[in-house]
Amino acid sequence: MSYFSAYLAPLLQQFHALYNPGIETKRLLRQAADCLPADAVALPDVSRATFQDFHLYLAQNEWELAMEVLEELATGTRPPATFWGLLAQVAERMKCDVHAQRYRNNSKMK
Predict the structure, then answer these.
(1) Which of 10, 55, 83, 106 could connect to 35 by a Cys-Cys bridge, CB 3.0–4.6 Å?
(2) What ranges do the domains of the chain cover?
């Protein structure tokens, strides 16, 4: 049975990505969040968005706001190029071309 499950898992993921793009967008945003350095997530700053804000926007399907919070949390840190690549994918999915281009440029600089 595990062989069958291993075979089906990627197919189900592709199905969900096609028929419920929100699931894929959330997954990409969560992956990007996991790439942030721990200090970017842990240090609350009243003048900036917080990791809690990210989770709130994610829960409310406010993906552009969640994406922008991650970008703000990355300010002053050095997240890996993967982080920027994931954000670029999210921006492209939402047709945010200006964001996507900026994130792609950031991923090339890192």
Answers:
(1) 83
(2) 21-109
Amino acid identity of residue 30, one-letter, is R
Position 7, amino acid: Y
**N-term to C-term CA, the chain:** 43
In this prediction the pTM is: 0.76
Q: pLDDT tens digit string along 63-107?
A: 999 999 999 999 888 899 999 999 999 999 999 999 999 999 987
| 93, 25 Cβ separation under 8 angstroms | yes
Angle made by CA atoms 12, 24, 41, in degrees to the nearest 5: 130
**DSSP label at 62?**
-
**What does the CA dihedral 94, 99, 101, 103 come to, rounded to 10 degrees?**
-110
Residues 6+ apart with CB under 8 A from 52: none
